């Protein structure tokens, strides 16, 4: 027998570990209190990210899986060997501050959301197994002050130069479609040839993609000038998707082209710009159309939205100013 096993101190540590393990097993068998080990919880949530869907029925994107995977690695290491149900609000706060104390409030807030989502998943996981559940300790955390960032307005003249600086055809198309239709980058990167019908873009559910609203299909509209260039691009187009590069490529292109004009912008800003343009024209019907948000305002539930032809007619204003 090795010295480590005959050493009294080692024997005490081993005995303590065995007793702890037996207590955990007894707790699980009695089912008097909630029990879920951290390693089981993390493994289950990794499977959920890989195989499951979010609350809107959409598969998780690669970026979401990678971002959450890194968070799970930190969580598993920090709370190794613990029962998820016994993690307190103070321990949650300590975990967040240990890794993101010096982060921006946006990053810190994102990690709180991820932690809350993970623990809510654990509660549902225990419910499905018929085991006792626990209260989410994140509910007791002090809320982080949330300040909405208002996008800075870039004049049409500057945005026109930004668009003209795109020499690669797929860069120009990506910029122009987001600027004029307000589609999200995820929507754009999932558009297929069969989803394009003249000036109408059908954002249809397929494979792992589903519109952010959770609907099976949404509609976006582009100006005639953009439509003509897109149709030209699609002639003999062999790729399944209309934009033949990765999302990160478009992101880098937007950033680099923006820097030429001293603009700190990204993909999502182009969508914001489209909405801001119509808001400045007092065309609130167009704002609602390009954002495609589900409205909760009573006013919007009683006022009919613009139809496709009305959107096309109004879009000629933007086409003249931005593309003319």
Notable traits:
3-stranded antiparallel beta sheet; 4% strand; 324 residues; hpI Integrase, Chain A; DNA polymerase, domain 1; 2 domains; mainly alpha
Reported by name, the CATH topology of the largest domain is: hpI Integrase, Chain A
The radius of gyration is 26 Å
Per DSSP E runs of 2 or more residues, the count of β-strands stands at: 3
Query: What does the main sheet amount to?
Result: 3 strands, antiparallel
User: Could you state the order of secondary-structure elements as H and E?
Assistant: HHHHHHHHHEEEHHHHHH
Rounded mean pLDDT score: 86
Q: CATH homologous superfamily of the largest domain, by name? A: Intergrase catalytic core
Beta-strand residue percentage: under 5%
Number of domains as seen in the coordinates: 2
Which structural category fits the helices and strands? Answer: mainly alpha
The number of helical runs is 15
What does this structure look like?
It is a single chain. The chain is mainly alpha-helical. The protein has two domains: 110 residues, DNA polymerase, domain 1 (Orthogonal Bundle); 168 residues, Intergrase catalytic core (hpI Integrase, Chain A). The chain is 58% helix and 4% strand. Strands 1-2-3 form a three-stranded antiparallel beta sheet. The protein is elongated. The relative contact order is 0.09. The mean pLDDT is 86.
